[in-house]
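Structure tokens please, single chain.
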Amino acid sequence: MSLDNRDYMRNEPRPAEGALFSRMDTFQWVFALNIGVFVIQWLFQIGWIEDPVTGRRVMPMGGVSVDDLARGQVWTPFTYMFVHGSVGHILVNMIMLWFAGRRVHDLFGGRNFLYIYLMSGLAGAALEMALGALVLGSTSITLIGASACCMGLLLAYALAMPDEQLTLLLFFIIPVQATLRGMARFLLLLNVALGLLACFDALPSWLSGGGGAVAYWAHVGGALAGWYFARALGYGGAPAFFQPPALARQARPRRGAVARARRPVIEMDMEAMRRKNPKNDPVVDLMRDEVDPILDKISAHGMHSLSEEERRTLERASRRISSKTGGNS
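Here you go.
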């Protein structure tokens, strides 16, 4: 299939420049929703649970607990992942969401980004509440925050691009080189270790998250969900043995054509690029010479057939094209 015939390379009409909301992608909507809920609850002081005796604000509304579910508040497993308990809480989560969420959106597409975000949040809440009830005997602990969602996105990103090189600042001073896979593995094992200490009431007070306990097992549950759904999409080896219906439909061949696996979302105005560089354009050359054969391989054999170098080529192409066309990355 020639480059110009691919559906994502065609010159599609774009929304008007003033139509801000129509130009926002799924990642931007999720990010904006987290920020918007925080501003409404903390800046305008709307949507708080108050002490019935003193009238003092106790915590933001929207959290989830076993007791809330028993009272019929079935929406709270979804709302809790957009509510945060402090400036530091939302700052850390939004840094993680910006880092991992954008890349997952580019690699897997908006629908799968949202699917991983929501399923990781639900899995994290389920694991944390189950262990809290069974081990600690508590059904009233309320969970808030997008941490489980962000851990799921991070694990999905690490599974897709495990050898991505990162420079981390140890103690915010010492630069340390690490791979994305190494960082994700370290964070997962750290949360498992701290969660075990919390189960045995052996966690030091300075690791308890200040005024409220940190939901370490929610982080673990979210991370495992993100890893699983990335595997179901064909990353990290052969797809997992079970696929949810939406992912299974995506993976099955369509009648009369071979289903194309998910690929980085690449939007290009080819005519505009050719007018700007009529003789030779390095981005067009990159797509034609390097990326086009990889996409043909995905169509024929699936995402799991790619080598690590081919996955890095797709990631590099996504970044260069986003930069070239002014798209979001």
